[in-house]
């Protein structure tokens, strides 16, 4: 069996630039010959590094060495599959398409390796070996190599890498780990989904997603590292997570057009894939299984985020949370839609999963004013449910908002099974009711925002 090799030789835990980081940075700076010296040297040292193969071939293609570039891109796809890096394999397809190559056979190969039921999938497969330690002595190809001589040297390195791979053709291909979302799809569905993604490269420090902006794209890390950052009320910026090879991010924009809740910034020069909402909606119309799995994946991500922020879910043991969440239905509200209407019974309990809502009161003269705004993780509807009365204020979506909704008829059964939830909701309901009543009694001035009038 062929071993699954590391994808990033030269990087270390202290965050020092790897040779491939340098190559990508040089490419982005327009220093193509210098970039080629570094990337080709990585391939020469370890021909299994798919990201180095792809970068080297991109530089060869730009320089007119099309035949060598095609050979290397095709090898890069196969090497990326062997490492379990579906996004990087898809990135190489984009380069081949740019050279007018029919990528259908390779697309089939990728889908066959990662789809549901693939014989190459194994739940307990060992992860790829960690990156090789940073070697300060690593050197690029000689700076005396320029022009045609450099291109010929890099072409020879790519050809040698192909010969090495062919020599292992009789070996059993390595198993790969299932990928969230992708490996839940049958082959044809997966093939259609990955065809929606396009490749692009970003430098270190580049914000791929900016907090507060509206988004309509989902991204996958093919190679690199990014940080998820959020700005706190005091102006400090905190790092919420690091995203590495294979990470999918930004996909919540496919379910809701709420402003991005955090920024995502490249820590290293990175290769990413992007799919836009319109492209995904188009393929989902043709293949409903893709739409169903995308919605299910987004729901799983919503719940995972809520578990860290929602007092309602934290009141239940981790083992019971999955069954609890299944009792909720997903609801989507446009900006200005009313989740709850003053003077009427609520339809149930809403747990805000994405976006933001405002609690809106009304003065005797009909003027509207905002009592409070509630972010992700908060609940609305508990006052009327717990205190058993009609709503005393409107609840309006400030942005396009997604909630997990527990219908009124399910509420009693929920609190019977989970008394801790009732205790928490009761305290929250009393506190919020007192706050709302106090604001309503003391309000004399309208402070309503435009969204209230939509």
* Radius of gyration using CA atoms only: 26 Å
Strand order of the largest sheet: 1-8-3-6
By helix and strand content, what is the structural category? alpha+beta
Shape: elongated
Oligomeric state: single chain
Number of strands: 16
Percent strand: 15-25%
Number of domains: 3
Overview of this structure, please?
This protein has helices spanning 19-28, 32-45, 50-62, 66-82, 86-98, 104-114, 147-166, 187-194, 277-286, 288-309, 311-314, 321-325, 382-386, 408-417, 419-442, and strands at residues 198-202, 207-209, 217-223, 226-231, 237-243, 248-249, 263-266, 270-276, 329-333, 338-340, 348-354, 357-362, 368-374, 379-380, 394-397, 401-407. The protein is α+β, with helices and mostly antiparallel strands and 454 residues long. Strand 4 (226-231) and strand 5 (237-243) form a beta hairpin. Helix 9 crosses helix 10 (288-309).
